[in-house]
């Protein structure tokens, strides 16, 4: 187990050694609170786009389902007749220049795995740049849009926003409730009181403090051909190799178990890169991975490798609330 894995386990399961990190946690909290205070006071170089910006983010380190929710938001807004663009940091991407427009044919190493996944699935105009305000400006130079979605960026205060949506893993919650490095929080838990909506990934129903949403498996997709297979492709009890290089691999493995398969888990670091040799497992069994991993493995995947495509399903009350926000932000489109 890597140091990062051990630290994350300590955040959620507890460890007395975390008390030694209290001075660093205090310093971190002061920095992030000062940054937000400058933003609220209108100080610093903050860019306000000429169209609504919706930030989808989290206050915890690790996967909470942002990419599936971004995909849902894109399709939902398009169904309302809105032209949508997306900006992203492009974590791990190495484009030749910045900002960089991600195209479906780009390599994941160039574009970043999550931005490439979003573009390949939806064809949405998407620009990457660690400076998201720069990404928005460049996107608006080439596209006529009604709305910008910022993939992550809750803590990127150089970009003004009109709506903040925060995702939390319903099972893991906020861990020990402490900030980095003593806990998983990017900002203090009090930050949640200032966002517009909180969504709990995996919640059975809406809660007093937020909306429910779930990730529903919809199909298996073969990497090399793009062929879609139904979820009865494998019989109940089928043993298979499960590959996940995401923020919370256990959620993926658990999903496969709900489909009544028997996954042999192979957890990799979030945003991991792969070689064919890394994914040669014994015994020979079907291999299923996440869609985020698939965009990095498609070029060398043999026949039979597949990824599990999932779909975000937010609660009806969230959909109603979100539509009311669209009507408020874009009255001319209702």
UniProtKB/TrEMBL annotation:
GO cellular component: plasma membrane
Entry's Gene Ontology molecular function annotations: ATP binding; lipid-A 4'-kinase activity
Enzyme category, top tier: transferase
Binding site for ATP: 60-67
InterPro entries found in the cross-reference section: LpxK, P-loop_NTPase
Domain of life: Bacteria
Pathway listed: Glycolipid biosynthesis; lipid IV(A) biosynthesis; lipid IV(A) from (3R)-3-hydroxytetradecanoyl-[acyl-carrier-protein] and UDP-N-acetyl-alpha-D-glucosamine: step 6/6
Reaction catalyzed: a lipid A disaccharide + ATP = a lipid IVA + ADP + H(+)
GO BP of this protein: lipid A biosynthetic process; lipopolysaccharide core region biosynthetic process
Protein EC: 2.7.1.130
Function: Transfers the gamma-phosphate of ATP to the 4'-position of a tetraacyldisaccharide 1-phosphate intermediate (termed DS-1-P) to form tetraacyldisaccharide 1,4'-bis-phosphate (lipid IVA).
Descriptive protein name: Tetraacyldisaccharide 4'-kinase
């Amino acid at each position: 187990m890597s140091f990062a894995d051990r630290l994350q386990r300590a955040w959620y399961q507890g460890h007395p050694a975390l008390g030694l990190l209290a001075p660093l946690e205090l310093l971190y909290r002061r920095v992030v609170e000062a940054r937000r205070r400058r933003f609220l006071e209108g100080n610093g170089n903050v860019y306000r786009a000429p169209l609504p910006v919706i930030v989808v983010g989290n206050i915890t380190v690790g996967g909470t389902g942002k990419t599936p929710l971004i995909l849902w938001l894109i399709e939902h807004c398009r169904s309302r007749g809105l032209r949508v663009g997306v900006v992203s940091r492009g974590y791990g991407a190495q484009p030749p220049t910045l900002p960089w427009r991600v195209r479906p044919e780009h390599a994941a190493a160039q574009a970043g795995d999550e931005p490439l996944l979003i573009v390949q699935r939806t064809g949405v105009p998407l620009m990457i740049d660690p400076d998201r305000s720069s990404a928005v400006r460049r996107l608006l130079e080439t596209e006529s849009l009604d709305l910008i979605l910022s993939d992550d960026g809750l803590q990127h205060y150089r970009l003004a926003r009109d709506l903040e949506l925060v995702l939390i893993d319903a099972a893991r919650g906020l861990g020990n409730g402490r900030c980095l490095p003593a806990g998983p929080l990017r900002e203090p838990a009090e930050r949640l009181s200032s966002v517009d909506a909180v969504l709990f990934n995996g919640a059975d129903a809406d809660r007093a403090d937020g909306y429910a949403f779930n990730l529903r498996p919809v199909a298996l997709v073969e990497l090399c051909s793009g062929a879609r297979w139904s979820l009865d492709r494998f019989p109940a009890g089928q043993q298979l190799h499960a590959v996940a290089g995401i923020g919370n691999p256990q959620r993926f493995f658990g999903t496969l178990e709900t489909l009544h398969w028997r996954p042999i888990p192979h957890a990799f670091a979030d945003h991991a890169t792969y070689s064919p040799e890394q994914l040669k497992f014994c015994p020979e069994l079907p291999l299923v991975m996440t869609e985020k991993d698939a965009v990095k493995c498609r070029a060398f995947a043999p026949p039979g490798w597949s990824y599990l495509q999932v779909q975000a399903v937010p609660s009806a009350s969230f959909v109603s609330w979100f539509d009311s926000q669209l009507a408020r932000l874009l009255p001319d489109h209702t």
